[in-house]
Amino acid sequence: MLLLGAVPALRADKLSFDERMEITRGLDAEFATVKVILPRSKKPLVFSSDGTYDKNAWQKALFEGGPAARLGDEVQITHVDIEDKRIVLEINGGTKGHGHWYDHVQVGMGGTVSPIGTQQNRQVAANGTYLAIVFPGSVPSLKTADLRQMLAPIFDFEKHSAAQQYVDTLPEPIKKAIKEQRAVEGMNKDQVLLALGKPRNKSRETNSDGDEIEDWVYGDPPGKIVFVRFDEGKVVKVSESYANVGGTTMAPLPPPR
Question: What is the pTM of this model?
Answer without folding.
Answer: 0.52
